[in-house]
Amino acid sequence: STRRALRTVDAMIDSASAIADGELDRKVPEAQPGTELGRLASALNIMISSLRSSLRAKDESEQGMRRFLGDASHELRTPLTVIKGYGEMLKDAENLDPAQRSRAIDRLNAESARMDTLISDLLRLSRLDQHPVISADLVDLSSVTSDFAQDLRDQEVGRNVELEIEEDVIVRGDESLLRQVLANIMGNIRRHTPVDSPVRVRLSLDEANGSSNAHLVVDDAGPGISPEKREIAVARFGRLEESRSRQGGGFGLGLSIVSQVVALHGGELKLGSSPLGGLRLEILIPGVTS
Predict the structure, then answer these.
(1) In the chain, N or C: fewer CB atoms in 10 Å?
(2) 72-76 contacts, C-beta under 8 A, 24 or more apart
(3) What confidence tens digit (pLDDT) does each residue in 41-69 have?
(4) Model pTM score
(5) Number of Cβ atoms within 10 Å of the Cβ of 177
(6) Strands in the chain per DSSP E
(7) How many CA atoms lie within 13 A of 133 on its CB side?
């Protein structure tokens, strides 16, 4: 009846007013299904649910940003404190023996490099956010991966790097960004695994169901990342409270960059357990067939 319809409209208005005042747990009362009021009530409740989800996501993002900035500040403060301490020590260089001076200089260089890496990663993430469109050049991923393995061998002479690369694995994308992906992977390996432990690198072009994917697998023998922490490891504002994240500084920005660049290339990053006992990192990117 008209009176019942008006009561329904009044109830909707009351609920809408309460929601406008911030009571997002309120719902618009359901009306008779199939009627105009019923469809209106249903549409309003869907809109309210969407608004509630958006606000929740916004709050989580802001909390993540605050956590991220706090972590970044902490990570920067640590090397700065070390640099300051050794700088003060070197002021009194006359009273230091050669071994002490050499150690102080080595520590200054190491902490400066650590700070430089963190700042570079922060800037790189910012640039990826501002310019999420990449080039679509043909990139020889076989050559890029071979260079990565050779760089790892050159920088860590005692490292056994097993290499199995299929020739002419071609993808479309930005070569400099793909090289950055492998540089970040190398940085993680160097920070989190013993220099005398092996690394296995495999690259192939997997073809199935009319499509092809470049498939890169990197296995290490470090501490790995437990299954429940792997999603956190690649999250922008994630933080791992275990040995891999804290050993040698760093707090997971490297894998965040890897994940973002791979996604920009239409690919996928997977983390798993390596048969070598550490972390298995897999990257799948659409390949180009001749």
Answers:
(1) C
(2) 72/118, 72/122, 75/118, 75/249, 75/250, 75/251, 76/115, 76/118, 76/119
(3) 888 788 778 878 877 777 777 776 676 66
(4) 0.62
(5) 19
(6) 137-140, 161-165, 170-173, 199-208, 211-220, 268-273, 279-288
(7) 0
Distance CA 7, CA 84 (A): 72
| Closest to 204 in 3D by CA, of 290, 144, 284 | 284
pLDDT band of residue 278 (cuts 50, 70, 90) is very high
Q: Are 224 and 244 a contacting pair, CB within 8 Å?
A: yes
SS3 content of the chain, % helix, strand, coil (to 5): 60, 15, 25
> Tokens 């009362």 belong to which residue?
29
What per-residue confidence (pLDDT) applies to 75? 62
- 148, with CB counted inside 10 A (0-12, 13-18, 19+), is buried
Residue 161 φ then ψ, to 5°:
-110, 110
Q: Which of 77-91, 135-149, 160-174 has the lowest mean pLDDT?
A: 77-91
Q: What is the pLDDT of residue 149?
A: 92
Contact 255, 234 (CB under 8 A): yes
- Judge contact between 244 and 250, C-beta under 8 A: no
Pick among 2.40.128.90, 3.40.920.10, 3.30.930.10, 1.10.287.130: CATH of 68-130: 1.10.287.130
Per-domain residue ranges for the chain?
A: 2-58, 68-130, 137-288
